[in-house]
Write a structure and sequence with these properties.
Helix content is 58%, strand content 4%. Strand 2 and strand 3 form a beta hairpin.
Length: 259
């Protein structure tokens, strides 16, 4: 079998396990780039040299994860023998502060919104933790106002999930849906939603997802519930999103629990 045949099988197995499609696309691309960099049979030395050419520590770490993932799969599925793959070094990446929407910024964006749809965009981002791509695909039939949740049918991880709705969001949805029984909820593309945020002087889309997670934790929602509602496969993503604000969250919780 050729490398592309193995990569196609690797990708298919990845999808069948319900893992993020975008990730395996990147992994396959990196494996192809690495193999094309090698003069002969790939070795650990080749891997280290290739990783050293990475433009950043983040890229080097992602590339290393791609080689490890394919090597592990390959060993279990009679693919190319990369016995060295589990020794590929993972570059240490220092966590950087991530832009995170605060309640003050949420209220400011809501105050700047002059039309119903703009206010609905802000409320949905703040109360659901949805990605902009998920929000643009949200259909009327996926919104359950009385139960206060939406169904995210197509997520990054490839699995559907439920996301919460606040009462304020439900009120706006009811007004927005008057006379519109079906179809796209917002009738907006990802780009259109991003332009709304820019026009309102609001933070970037992903900062809203982080802000949603931090706000939920600050208000007593468990890490497990945040993880499930966000569609993250492990609690590591919750920790990654909130690491820069962990001290603030800790002090807030103590102030609420102790006299």
């Amino acid at each position: 079998m050729e490398l592309n045949d193995y990569l196609n099988e690797f990708s298919a197995d990845w999808h069948l396990e319900g893992r993020a499609k975008a990730t395996v696309v990147s992994y396959c691309r990196f494996v192809r780039e690495f193999v094309s960099h090698c003069d002969g049979e790939p070795t650990l030395g080749d891997a280290k040299c290739w990783l050293a050419l990475s433009p950043s520590a983040e890229t080097a770490r992602y590339r290393a994860r791609a080689l490890r993932a394919f090597g592990k799969w390959s060993s279990a599925n009679n693919g190319p023998i990369w016995e060295w793959s589990n020794k590929v070094p993972l570059t240490t990446v220092k966590p950087q502060p991530q832009p995170t929407v605060t309640k003050v910024e949420y209220e400011a964006a809501l105050g700047a919104a002059k039309c119903l749809r703009d206010r609905l965009v802000i409320e949905l981002l703040w109360s659901t933790g949805m990605r902009v791509s998920e929000l643009s695909r949200l259909a009327v039939e996926d919104v359950f106002v009385s139960e206060r949740y939406v169904v995210v049918r197509q997520s990054k991880a490839g699995k559907p999930r439920l996301a919460p709705l606040s009462e304020a969001t439900c009120r706006l949805v009811r007004r927005h849906l008057q006379g519109r029984p079906e179809g796209s909820l917002l009738k907006m593309s990802r780009t259109a939603i991003q332009l709304v945020l820019r026009r309102l002087g609001a933070p970037s889309p992903h900062a809203w997802r982080r802000g949603w997670a931090v706000n939920a934790l600050r208000n007593g929602v468990s890490q497990t519930s945040v993880q499930v509602a966000a569609g993250w496969s492990s609690g590591a993503m919750v920790s990654r999103y909130t690491s820069s604000l962990s001290s603030d969250l800790s002090i807030h919780e103590f102030s609420q629990k102790l006299p």
